[in-house]
Amino acid sequence: MKRVSTPVVVAGLCFALVLLGAASLMVGRVWVPLEAWSSADPRWVIILELRIPRTLLAIVVGGALGMSGAALQGYTRNPLADPGVLGVSSMAALGAVISLYFGFYAPVLGGAPWLMPLCAMAGALIGVLVLIGLTGQASGTVTFVLAGVVLNIVAGAGVALALNLAPNPWAVNEIVNWLMGSLTDRSFADLQMSAPFVALGLALLLLTGRALDALTLGETGARSLGISLSRIRVLLALGVGLAAGASVAVTGVIGFVGLVTPHLLRPFLGPRPAGLLLPSALGGAVIVLAGDILVRLIPSAAEVRLGVAMAALGGPFFLGLLLVQRRRLS
Amino acid sequence: MSVLEARGLHLQAGGRTVLSEVSARFEPGQVTAILGANGAGKSTLLAALAGLSPPTSGEVLLDQAPLLGLPPRRRAQRLGFIPQTPEIAWGLEVRTVVGLGRLPWLGARGLSGEDEVAVDRALAAARVEDLAERDITTLSGGERARALIARALAGEPEWLLADEPYAGLDPRHALEAGDLFRRLAGEGAGVLLTLHDLTLAARLADRVLVLGHGRVLADGPPRSAMTADILAVAYGVDARLRETEQGLSVDILGRWG
Description:
The complex is a heterodimer of chains A (330) and B (257).
Chain A: H1 6-26, H2 44-76, H3 88-101, H4 115-135, H5 141-164, H6 169-179, H7 188-206, H8 209-215, H9 218-224, H10 229-251, H11 257-269, H12 273-297, H13 306-329
Helix pairs in contact in A: 1-2, 1-12, 2-7, 2-10, 2-11, 2-12, 3-4, 3-5, 3-6, 3-10, 4-5, 4-10, 7-10, 8-9, 8-12, 11-12
Chain B: E1 4-13, E2 16-26, E3 31-36, H1 42-49, E4 57-62, E5 65-66, H2 72-78, E6 79-82, H3 94-100, H4 113-125, H5 141-154, E7 159-163, H6 171-186, E8 190-194, H7 198-204, E9 207-212, E10 215-220, H8 222-225, H9 228-235, E11 237-244, E12 247-255
Parallel strand pairs in B: 3-8, 3-9, 6-7, 7-8
Antiparallel strand pairs in B: 1-2, 1-4, 4-5, 9-10, 11-12
Helix pairs in contact in B: 3-5, 4-5
């Protein structure tokens, strides 16, 4: 098995991130070439106020989703796991929609801007806890995926109910727009709201690496190697809850990044779960950033939402994955 | 000198008594075979001795101290365990899987040179050096079983507890595995195995512990613990222990009763 060494892959991903980051500052409705990057140029405001926070947010959110996916795939020993598939993102969305619905977040009401990320993270955390609780001792792949289906249905019903009972069309509009998942017009305030929680979540997930490796041998195998399963469950729940929850809170639901990223990296790095955590964060950041540049380049009247674009690209990928898996299983 | 001891183990699972009043003391330097029919509680006893199934009452002691009181990492350093149906989730290289056996010893920086040496030694001892670069999910059942023995050896445990380590081994590799277990015991480790092959148990083990419905039916050297009466009660078969030129042999003559 010929593999590329981790430092080479990490360096490559960092390089891609820098290139895409620069491109992300230039590309958009207003083209801002490199020579306009100075405070003397009137377009500087666009870079400073819009493009920089948007770019950084893409990196933060992509990193959160990528590593959450890698950690969940490692824990479940299931290559089809990710925060979206397992319903964690939907639960975060439900939490956020509840806060939107009650209007706490609307600045006109003078509500606390922290409430939405808080609700989203609470939703995500509840989601992960339900997943881990439902599967607990007998964590077969099937139970885990079924638990994810249940969460997706419950969260979907909750969101639909909020839409159903929405007081006016504007509220519906706001919820729907937000649900589609986008990085458009995000500010430094959004970055401040999410980045610290994402960073904390990712730090917790990095601590699970060895336990995830040990889980390759199954739960009994891992325990016989001195791994405490309850500790890793807590770390995983908090880590995914914080990282995915804080991401969903500021960008809405962006699916498939967590699912796809570890898969794209495995051929280069091998399947060892701990070895995929950090590269998946970088890979997720590259994918979200690239996707966000792509949606800005699509010449359409309204900007295609990033969440929609990702779902459109991710669906076929998921299908392909299932086909390959099925061949391997049969 | 480390001593592993079960004291009045009682284990209830799913409303059924799996182990009842099991007491036994294991000394290092010996190979002990745990025998018994399907569902007699062999695997449960082994898991309890490895600290993986907490008993309902009674306790497992390692050097007079409760095993479950040890930090899991410390316990894993001293007891190596090979589960019966090992699941392997990812297509890792055999060498990487064997390296997982070093987890209880790892410092913050991952596998050290010393760890690598232990991995090499384990690969050699289990005769899987030539499989080291292979993807473990592509191995045959017997090759995988040997790779997982290597994984347990990599941790250099004082006690090796293996649940059905012979499943899937061809005759030649079964003999080699037997040599390996004997050599480990010769080097001062304690080896506990659950086995189904009675002849193999009679030849390999210094001591056999025969379980029936969760209770200890007999405990002692094969010649005294594997009598026709005990085998009849334990397995419901008419079996005879016979001396041959190659050592003891167990003939199954038919059903009993």
